Amino acid sequence: MTDITPQNLAGVAAPAAEPVARRVALKRVLGPAHVWGLGVGIVLVGEFMGWNFAVGKGGAIAALTACWLAGILYTCVAMIDSEITSTVAAAGGQYAQAKHIIGPLAAFNVGLYLVMAYTMLEVSNAIVTGDLIEAFTHNMGLVGEVDKRAFMVLTIVFLAWLNYRGVLATLTLNLVITAIAFAAIVTLFLYVRPWAPGETLKHGDLLTGLPYGGLGILAAMHFGLWFYLGIEGTTQAAEEVRSPARALPLGTLTGVMTLLIAATITWYVGTGLMPWEYLGQAVTPLYDAARLTGSAPLEVFLFFGTLFATIASANGCINDASRAWFAMGRDRYMPVWFGAVHPRYHTPFRSIVFFVPIAILFAVSTPLDQTITLSILSGLLGYTLMALSVVIFRRKWPLGTIDRGYVHPLHPLPAILLLALCAVTYVAVFLGYGSQLLAMMAFFIVASLWFALHRYKYVRRGDQFTMRWPKPNGY
């Protein structure tokens, strides 16, 4: 039977229907547990390495003070991030927030901060993985000489491949191995019998007050951030979460609580087993603590706990850095080539692959404390803009004007606290790594000029804003 259409009646063949282009996009497959696994998975490695450099800066008491002050800073970060991200649920996290709230130049810089912070954190994890495997094989007498650089490269390449293949499997793995790493910290804590001080833990003999006075607390703030750096990475999964308004605040805030507990336990065990002079320069302090207990099974468990923590962190960092770079490519802040999504795996595959050789180059050529410092500095710059962003956000779109998945309390106190603690940490970093701080600031200034004078002309200005909000107050 022939369909009767106006074209058929006129004796003209009806044109074939035009094929509808299918847009390949990121999949919404994640829940609150995956958000927790991403955030804590990135950060928990800070309990296994890096935090102890704060002990070297100012002693054990200074490191504990810096740990709690940094905990306040990251609680503010988590509250602010949860409100804005549950409202701006897009890939790129803080980059997408800055784009909608402050403007393109701020967004470009935030995107670079994110990529630098996560890539340098990934590099730090690869370095520690190589050092850990080298130390473990030597201590156990398993093999002869081990080339740790091979394990650095293998870690980066394998995790990039895993991220390439899909986000659900990637973050499910993160969830599992992060839980095992956290269990290792708790097991070590219980094994040293904290309820019986003096038997295993020797705080009475090892705690020495403040060897460098109050200045040591300021200096320790530099590495105090390492206990929590990266928890804000939960926002990078915003476009792949099934219910952003619920999952992002729940996963982020429970993640901060988990890290506060783990950080305090870690400090307590480490400072009760090792003198601060050694602890302040150890590469794998919790693994060393397990060795000092004399328990071979516990040493093996802490080896795997440390290994899983570094893998989970590097895994999450690849996920987050690639999402930020992908979002910038999609908006043409970077070449649009980076904004592609894999047609089968639904991942930003080009952005993932792009950073593999960069990470390998830094891993085999840069000292650990330098890569940690570069990551911390990039994070600090992002937190500073985050504090300004939430103030502008509340002023432009007051409560009640747009839907928010979460409203953080006590505004603007968290923003003020965040700015104050960031300022203190800038001073701390400058005291020890002033040249790196100045070099990084110079890099971002040059990059900003490149964006403003050259790159922004390629941006489709109307397409970059995706939120259907009313005009801001005072527009």
Overview of the structural elements:
It is built from 18 helices and no strands. With 475 residues, the protein is mostly helical. It has one domain: Up-down Bundle (Amino acid/polyamine transporter I). Helix 2 packs across helix 15, helix 12 crosses helix 14 and helix 15 packs across helix 16. The longest helix is centred in the C-terminal third of the chain and has 41 residues. The termini are far apart.
How would you concisely characterize the structure shown here?
Helix content is 68%, strand content 0%.
Task: Describe the structure using short key phrases.
about 475 residues; mainly alpha; Amino acid/polyamine transporter I; globular; disordered N terminus
Topology summary:
Elements: H1 6-9, H2 32-43, H3 45-48, H4 53-58, H5 60-87, H6 94-101, H7 104-140, H8 148-165, H9 167-191, H10 203-206, H11 214-224, H12 244-273, H13 276-279, H14 285-292, H15 296-330, H16 349-365, H17 368-396, H18 413-453
Helix pairs in contact: 2-9, 2-12, 2-15, 5-11, 5-12, 5-17, 5-18, 6-7, 6-17, 7-8, 7-15, 7-16, 7-17, 7-18, 8-15, 8-16, 9-12, 9-15, 11-18, 12-14, 14-15, 15-16, 17-18
